[in-house]
Amino acid sequence: MTTVANTHSPLYSPSVGARRKNVKLPKLPLSAFTPPNSGTGDKFPLLPSPSAIHPSAILDAGVSGSVEDWKTQMGASLVAKSRGVILALPSADAELVKAAQEDPSVIAASVPFDLSAGEPDPASVPAFIASPPANFAIALRTTFTAFTPQLADGVHWAISRGLTVDIDVQADLGTEAGWESLNELLSNATSSERPQGSSSKKGAIVLSNVLPAPLDLELPLVKLLTHPQYRNFQNYTSTISLIPNVHLKFAPPKWNAPIPSASTSTTSDNGGESAVPDSGKKEWKRRIKMYLGQGVEAFGWQRIVYASAGAEGSNVGDWYALARESLAELGVEQEAVDGVFGLNAQGVYSV
After folding, report:
1. Which of 26, 129, 162, 308 is most exposed, with the fewest beta carbons within 10 Å of its own?
2. What CATH number matches the domain at 57-348, 2.60.120.10, 3.50.50.60, 3.20.20.140, 3.90.700.10?
């Protein structure tokens, strides 16, 4: 059977070499060949370089040791941008709190306070905790190794009174059991079924030693991507981020190695210090961004606070440079950098 082509069909295509006469192509307007009017002339806007993104102000949410040492290590240009520090005191001593309050650089203090026994006897609570001084915030610092109902009671007691609780996580977060235990603590401590305390404002919980999580630097980066330790971090940060008023402290990681310093430093146009990293610093940044990226995705940058406590044996200025570059290289906007390095801590510590 012979098939006859339907030359009137819109699907019909003439054979190669045939010409279609009297066909006029539509004319495109000149605007089709020009970029949109974005105020940048004949070029499209480009994202700012990470090296150019600096926080407008710095509030360090955890400084250990001497404030003067912190200033020396940070450098004059960064200290000039400082909005103050939250000082981690070695003990809950009234004289230490008084001295910190008299230092204009210190706007809040974090004091060690054992919450593992549950709700404390009112007679054992220092006056500066029961009735914090005006214009000076007090946060309680406690350690977590495993879930107990008593610890959940103690944390709940603190946050129901409007106090911020810094929890140093010492549980093994390389295992699911460690994460499950932490999740159980946070869920129980923040349960809406518990009776509330005397404060109308609910306090915050800030987790340390989670972002970045402890790891073995000998583990190759390609193996870390699929390692159970990192998989657990991804899964459980997403889970605990659903618990309200829980924040992550972006602090020096416990990687059993000193924080790498920059090989050279330059000063940017806005006065900030821009470090030229060596190979060791590049490797640290790659690993930090693996954890920081997941932390930002799960919690949002609004619930991450920068701190330098934990950088013993290293220069806190080096940690600041490493932390700032790592966050900026994630492609976040100026608002996020300002929040993580200053504004978020103001809300968390009520300063």
Report:
1. 26
2. 3.20.20.140
